[in-house]
Amino acid sequence: MHLDHGHTHHGSVSADAHRPDGTRRALRIGLGGPVGSGKTATVAALCRHLRDTLSLAVVTNDIYTREDAEFLLREAVLPPERIQAVETGACPHTAIRDDISANLEAVEELEDTVGPLDLILVESGGDNLTATFSRGLVDAQIFVIDVAGGDDIPRKGGPGVTTADLLVVNKTDLAPYVGSDLGRMARDAAEQRGDLPVAFTSLRSAEGVGPVADWVRERLAAWTALPAPTA
Amino acid sequence: MSLRATARIAAAADGSLPVLESDGPLAPRRTRAAAPGWTRVTVVGAMSAPLGGDRLAIETEVRDGARLRVDSAAATLALPGRVPHPAAYELRLRVGAYAALHWLPEQLVSAHGSDLRVRTDVDLDATARLVLREEQVLGRHGEPPGTLFSRLTVRRAGRPLLDQELAYGPGAPGGWDGGAVLAGHRATGQLLVVDPAFEEEPVAARPLGEHGALTPLAGPAALVTAVAPDALALSRILDAALTELADV
Amino acid sequence: MTRSALLVLADGRFPAGGHAHSGGAEAAVKAGRIRDAAGLEAFCLGRLHTTGLTAAGLAAAAALGHDPYELDAAADARTPSPALRAASRRLGRQLMRAARATWPGPGLDALAAAFPRGAHQPVVLGATARAAGRGPEDAAHCAAYETAGGPATATVRLLGLDPYQATAVLARLAPVMDEVAARATAAAREGVDALPAASAPLLDITAEQHAAWPVRLFAS
């Protein structure tokens, strides 16, 4: 081969905590959960809540290309160059768990083009209760379910509900109408999750995403408190 | 008997044709150019000749600063020969500095039972311009196609710009009529426009209806690729593209 | 090096991004050119003998250690569709990421540094096979297998095609994959100028149409 100038570092090969230039990369938080539970609405609310104090960007993994990205663009929660859509070939869970290469391309491209970034939210395509993010892609993950999906979801468990770093139970305002028992959901979640936190949200008010935003800020503080990476 | 013939054309900047050699069935003739500053050569009648076993070639040199248009008086018809060998048809085109070549032959028709290998080698100076059209019709009206292999290699300043090989008909490897290649279409063609001006302003890729696409190449060039149910429909796509992309 | 390295590289679970690409099958399904197993087989057969052969030649040449700049330029000249050039470079970058994590070494590092925006996927595939200790035949086999495997998997998802039928299509095409890999390898041994350039007009045309769709499941 005519390329013989030795070993070089180019691009991170996996979830290294630093970028090629040695600076700390953005914290990556994944948001997963079943179709219609309010993942995209949560991402939009988080962006509105955090965009004035943090440099952030979003990667969407749509089932159909760009649907969620288009929603975020329409809502104008971030400038378009901060939103990237990844195509998933009809398998959204594959793109966030088994073959994360397209998502890693997208997060690195965002850091290269609009960086430096504090936070990148990676939204999964709507999937079932088994979809979780690879640790090679995100540093922490949020699993979003809603009360309308049935108050037995926390009891049923599954990797998302059981192991996500934060479980969000969304649309609490609908609980009386769909006959969901929030107390029971909280007890079942605690049983499945032990000490892992649960947030109950209703995004009907602008402040509804507050508990999730607070949790994100805590994670970010812990991330930046880590010793600076050495190149 | 099978034929071997090589015709030669050379055009100079002053509008003269220092070389204009006929050979066998290949007879290039000077004809009246429509555009001022251009020299025109028409390959007369005899292009309808490649029979099985024939080896025909046309060598064309457009010298520095010259502007040459080459066309043909009739379609080229590949026919079966008396010998069971493929016919070969080679085009070697060289275009020099600040020179331009418009290579606009009529359609190539691959008649049932024929077997033709076409090879087009184009060497362009970095400052040269080229308009090249290829139209292939698989079978005369209502007949199954012959076998046709066609390789087009274009180099610009010594580097590859476009390299494509098409293979159709009963002698081609399988799948040529499947959903990836022709899917039942019986005419296919390309229009290539190379112009250093595209370096600054490349064309934007876009579909041309259901059956064609305009694509910028990785160099200063635009390619139109089209398939069509028949020769007429193909011409419509490529003629419209020719009008849009080149002042011909 | 072991033969099993080839299986690791050729495995559909190898995390190099291929799962999001249909190899033109999504457009062919929409146009009604693939409706069933027979349509899939004709599609894959044509793709194998055209862009599959071309990709296999490039992969074999890269596995032999031919100049990657020359091979990358040859790939550009053989890929008139900008949508397909972009997909190929993107997949090349994704494969490079997986390859460097799997078979780290100076050869792949140098190739990655030389093509920060990604080399064409078959070139990276050949270099990966080389890094994994496999030769040009294996690189060409991988390229040929992907050529048919991608559309087959995509068609199962797009049409709900019976997966046994789709797999049977791949098995029936196995001798063709062998033939394509052998031709590609023989050409690669002759040098870059001898590499195949077989092309498929409909794949080029529909790739541009597909890239312009507002809604699609696959990246290409």
Automatic annotation (TrEMBL), chain A:
Keyword set for this entry?
Chaperone, Cytoplasm, GTP-binding, Nickel insertion, Nucleotide-binding
> Gene3D superfamilies per the record?
P-loop containing nucleotide triphosphate hydrolases
Q: From which organism does this entry originate?
A: Streptomyces hydrogenans
Q: What is the taxonomic lineage of the source species? A: Bacteria, Bacillati, Actinomycetota, Actinomycetes, Kitasatosporales
**Which InterPro entries is this protein grouped with?**
CobW/HypB/UreG_nucleotide-bd, P-loop_NTPase, UreG
Residue positions annotated to bind GTP are 33-40
- Report which superkingdom the organism of origin falls in: Bacteria
Q: What is this protein called?
A: Urease accessory protein UreG
What sequence ranges are listed for the domain CobW/HypB/UreG nucleotide-binding?
Answer: 29-198
Instruction: Please give the Pfam families that the UniProt record associates with this protein.
Output: cobW
The similarity comment for this entry is: Belongs to the SIMIBI class G3E GTPase family. UreG subfamily.
> Mostly located where?
cytoplasm
Instruction: Indicate where this protein resides in the cell.
Output: Cytoplasm
UniProtKB/TrEMBL annotation, chain B:
Name the principal localization, coarsely classed: cytoplasm
Source species, domain of life: Bacteria
Tell me, what's a Pfam family for it?
UreD
**Which parts of the chain are coiled coil?**
none
Q: Which UniProt keywords apply?
A: Chaperone, Cytoplasm, Nickel insertion
Q: Where in the cell is it found?
A: Cytoplasm
User: Does the record's keyword annotation contain Hydrolase?
Assistant: no
Family from the record: Belongs to the UreD family.
Please describe what this protein does.
Required for maturation of urease via the functional incorporation of the urease nickel metallocenter.
User: How the protein assembles, per its UniProt entry?
Assistant: UreD, UreF and UreG form a complex that acts as a GTP-hydrolysis-dependent molecular chaperone, activating the urease apoprotein by helping to assemble the nickel containing metallocenter of UreC. The UreE protein probably delivers the nickel.
Protein name in the entry: Urease accessory protein UreD
